[in-house]
Amino acid sequence: MSELKNKVVWITGASSGIGQALAFAMVKEGAKLVLSSRREQELNEVAKKCSCEVLILPLDLSDQSKFNNLAKQVVEHFGSIDVLINNGGISQRSEAAQTSLEVDRKLMEVNYFGAAALTKAVLPIMQKQKSGHLVAISSLSGKFGFFLRSAYSASKFALVGFYESLRLEEEKNNIKVSIVFPGFVHTNISQNALSGDGQKHAKLDNNQKGGISSEKCARDIIRGIKKDKHEIISGGSEKWGILVNRLFPNLFYRILRKKSGE
Hints:
Blueprint (H helix, E strand, L loop, with lengths): L7 E5 L4 H12 L3 E5 L3 H9 L5 E3 L10 H12 L4 E4 L14 H29 L2 E6 L12 H21 L4 E8 L6 H4 L13 H4 L4 H13 L4 E4 L6 H7 L1 H8 L6
């Protein structure tokens, strides 16, 4: 998919952060937008800044019962779904030993099952079209574990396995699949992350504070989509950890254990 002009692009988690930046960047590409998150008021504020046709569809990724109906609404409004960007999700900041199983389940429900369910709602539409592009926002934590992110990392690893399998299965239907691995991005993800007891972490991590902008991440993602890349990696110097881990795993672990999770 070399061009996004007039394509219908559905973005979850579009009320802030990377999702909001993706919406604004897609406007410049000439796309038509479907914007989703739990916060309808914030979505409307984003839509006001988008000089294109926008459909607002509030959704909660932990409540998947309405996803098939929402997908039908998109098709009724626009006639197709060309790109689905599963960006919505939640993070965690707590050691595994101090994290309740309810928090582990919450992250899997939102980050993994929410994305998988919405993808399965959209998939029959793309299969009928014999075209489409599915984009999953994983994380560098979906490549290797990191301090204070056991549940988050598990959910992001799960996304990788699901979408890599889906890519192979849907090639016959001309459906593309891209997995995005952002590093540290300056968003509110750490403030909204869950602590071990399920309360909000409510702190801006130094890693996030020093991360790339959400606009830079959005540009990297769009560039990767247009090039049909299987993996899209975005971040600062931390993104080179993927290569170091692959080539020198022992060295990588020695480096990683000296880092901080905050």
